[in-house]
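Tip: read the tokens left to right.
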């Protein structure tokens, strides 16, 4: 678990990380080696769930490189399914990472929502629901490993 007391924001007790895959963790379905290493470090402190519609059909191969549970969404209601997982885990102790319009609800519902710009861009809807916006997935993961970065970004 990661505990962060953020003056003027709230106290965070993050047990779970829910992340989109394509455009967030990967670019065009490819995961950087540095991202896999960082994910495994984050997994030492919280349980990771990857939720994806698997646009590139590579989710199974990509996710074998790090410790996480994979959920491939098939209903056509990805936005609702992602938010439902956050609610099931507990909104108050779940962080969310995403970049797409179908990530907006999980970014909003999670105790901490981080939008990732990345090479594939970021939906304005996701951007508006996030607490923090980063330029690269590795930056988001480094924040989760060094909570003082999150505190500096969110304190008022």
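Filled-in amino acids:
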């Amino acid at each position: 678990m990661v505990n962060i007391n953020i003056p003027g924001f709230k106290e965070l007790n993050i047990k779970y990380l829910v992340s989109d895959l394509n455009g967030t963790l990967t670019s065009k379905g490819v995961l950087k080696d540095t991202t896999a290493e960082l994910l495994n470090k984050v997994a030492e402190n919280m349980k990771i769930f990857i939720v994806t519609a698997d646009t590139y059909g590579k989710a199974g191969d990509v996710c074998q490189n790090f410790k996480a549970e994979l959920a491939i969404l098939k209903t056509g209601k990805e936005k609702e399914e992602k938010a439902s997982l956050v609610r099931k885990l507990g909104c108050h102790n779940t962080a969310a990472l995403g970049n797409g319009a179908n990530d907006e609800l999980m970014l909003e519902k999670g105790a901490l929502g981080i939008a990732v710009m990345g090479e594939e861009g970021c939906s304005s809807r996701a951007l508006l629901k996030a607490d923090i916006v980063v330029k690269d997935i590795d930056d988001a993961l480094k924040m989760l490993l060094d909570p003082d970065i999150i505190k500096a970004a969110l304190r008022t």
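The first helix runs from residue 33 to 42. The radius of gyration is 14 Å.
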